[in-house]
Write the structure tokens for this entry.
Amino acid sequence: MTKAAPATDIISRLIEIVGDAHALTRPEDQAGYLREWRDRYTGKTPVVLRPGSTDEVSKILALAHEHGIAIVPQAGNTGLVGGQIPSLSGTEIILSVGRLKAVRAVDADGGTMIVEAGVTLADAQAVAEKAGRLFPLSLASEGSAQIGGVLATNAGGTAVLAYGNARHLCLGLEVVLADGRIWHGLRTLKKDNTGYDLRDLMIGSEGTLGVITAAALKMAPRPAETATAIVALNSPREALKLFRQAEETAGGALTAFEFWAREAMQFALDYMPNTRDPMSIAHPWYALVEISSGAWRHLEGGGRAHDQLENLLLAASDMSLICDAALAASLQQARDFWTLRESFSEAQKGAGGSIKHDISLPIARIPEFLVRAAEVVERVCPGARPVPFGHFGDGNLHYNVSQPIGMEKARYLALWQPMSDAVHALVADMAGSISAEHGIGQMKRDALVRFKSPVEIIMMRAIKAALDPKGILNPGKVL
């Protein structure tokens, strides 16, 4: 990691590359780049550089590499593990890709588009919609999250069950390497078996191996119909049985199976506007089930997705798997269901301190984990409130733990490390992962060494040393 601040003349040369208007040096202009939204990580920088082209990114990195200057790539600053925030040393320069917003190509027939790294996820979805297609990656932060960051962290979201995470939706990349060389890998081929997969190496590397400047993305056919329901459950074991039943009923048409505890929904109802309980009484657990279908319709007018979901709910009721169900009767009601689900993370702020874990587990072991994890939490902090929710269908849980009622927030958050250590140890014991979709960043860097095998860490360090020998790219992150 570079310890000395860049010389004034080098900073001036970097500013010349992007122009004075796109180099932020005043604290008030830099503020939005130096703090992540949960306020867990803050940093300092001599300058925020906002290049407007891949060529400018290349020139910045070539100069930084020559002089050993640390560069922190940043996209929409929606990351949750501090990977996009510089250290407090004030020696690291932020390189924002936010001005790289061009849509370079759209091929509706081929189901691909090429967009630059600063295009937001919502804008990429709009590009696909205009082409009569679907870009299915969806996050609560999609209005701010940018393609470069989404790919650098291999983001997941609510549609992973049917479409995969960011990695599965990317066909090719344009990347600027640490020394300024440009890898032109914007291929739109679905098959390219020519040696090591450099695309997959860059995706999920969190800006430590190169700076993504553009991507070739897959677009999917738009479903003609989507049916959505929220169901009430007695326990996670019923959720597992319902998920298996939904898979058998809908097959590949099952596009979402979300899951949460009552505590998560109660926080949303208490602290978030425009949310309401879809059930008349409270239940301990819930799932959101979504089925999508193509253009086929029954002759009598009913849609296949609606029929499949209705049949699933009837069968699940007959099998006593569900306590109650609310089937969306309109697009607006379906949106309301999703708004409720997507509000859980933010809603926890209203309940005080929250210690968060983004984990994945073998799906069949989720019910067992929830029982054992509650015991772990109680041992670390009696009275702390587990608030689990997440993407049950792909094994990804957000196992967040809110402070005990009446406990001082700062005192509770001081337990972050012992709480995370205990939860992650249980995850490892159950053959899970300590990071499902948020990445490693600063937050889990030390934990990675504990839970990855020595051979895996050696391989990762060898890759880092080969592609960034001076260690200028996002120092102190991941490794």
User: Anything to note?
Assistant: The first helix runs from residue 8 to 18. The mean pLDDT is 94.
